[in-house]
Design goal:
It is a single chain. By secondary structure, the protein is α/β, with parallel strands linked by helices. Helices cover 30% and strands 24% of the residues. The strands form 3 sheets. It has a 5-stranded parallel beta sheet with strand order 4-3-5-9-10, with helices on both faces. β3, α2 and β4 form a beta-alpha-beta unit. α2 runs parallel beside α5 and α3 runs parallel beside α4. It is elongated and about 80 Å long.
């Protein structure tokens, strides 16, 4: 009876050098010569990485970070984490940081001026803009599920900022637009509309602490901001070395 290659027995040498018993071959190696060699595989992988790097990696002429919180809440643990994250942006990622504390009087108008100035001065395709917010948020009443920022001490009152008023400016993603990263330490709707995806312009990335329905720690070891600080300092790399669509991965894992 013919025996298949998988049934061929090979001698097994004992410690004394004698063939005391045999074992069946564990794999059929009759087609081994048809496999690609390791050097050929490594060459193909290198070519693939080289081809994608030119498309996905870019350097920025300037990185601006707008860091936002409520003026009356800039105290205690929140203020400490705010300053620590600001230091991370400046020292680890070599960014230029603009701290801004929202006033209780007309905060939406005040913030719109800041964002208009930011876009006018730095909204160029070779730049990266990062907008960070820490504070309380509720869903808006227009069905967009974008966050409405409110002070924790007086929620539901007129002192609020509906982010819908400036999101379309930051997320327009036109050919002359900068790349944008949104970092919100607050609740955001899971069904928040995506930025303009029909343009070949700037990339827009977003990373949020959670949904409106989830429990979000205000500050402390489990807070979103604290996670940004610890994970960023563990990497010690700069945004200038990252693919634009993976910017948020660098600071979230």
């Amino acid at each position: 009876m013919d025996r298949s290659s998988s049934d061929i027995e090979l001698p097994l040498s004992s410690a004394s050098g004698t063939n005391s018993k045999s074992i069946p071959r564990t794999h059929d190696t009759s087609l081994a010569s048809s496999h690609i060699t390791f050097l050929d595989w490594a060459g193909q992988m290198n070519n693939a990485v080289t081809a994608t790097s030119a498309k996905n990696y870019k350097s920025y002429s300037e990185i601006k970070v707008l860091m936002i919180c409520w003026e009356e809440e800039y105290d205690g643990a929140l203020a400490c984490e705010f300053r620590q994250l600001s230091s991370v942006f400046e020292t680890v990622y070599q960014c230029s940081v603009i701290p801004y504390h929202l006033p209780l009087t007309d905060p939406d108008f005040a913030l719109m001026k800041i964002i208009f100035d930011l876009i006018e001065e730095h909204g160029k395709p070779e730049n990266l803009l990062i907008v960070y917010y820490v504070g309380f948020a509720t869903p808006d009443s227009y069905g967009t599920r974008l966050p409405v920022w409110e002070p924790r001490s007086n929620p539901g009152q007129k002192e609020e900022v509906n982010t819908n008023i400036f999101h379309h400016l930051l997320a327009r993603a036109c050919d002359d637009s900068p790349d944008v990263v949104l970092l919100y330490d607050c609740g955001v709707g899971l069904l928040s509309p995506k930025p303009n995806g029909n343009s070949s312009g700037g990339e827009v990335e977003a990373l949020f602490a959670g949904s409106f329905e989830s429990h979000i720690p205000i500050s402390g070891p489990d807070s979103f901001t604290k996670h940004l600080i610890t994970s960023s300092t563990s990497h010690l790399r700069t945004f200038k070395q990252l693919p634009t669509f993976n910017i948020h991965l660098q600071i979230s894992y």
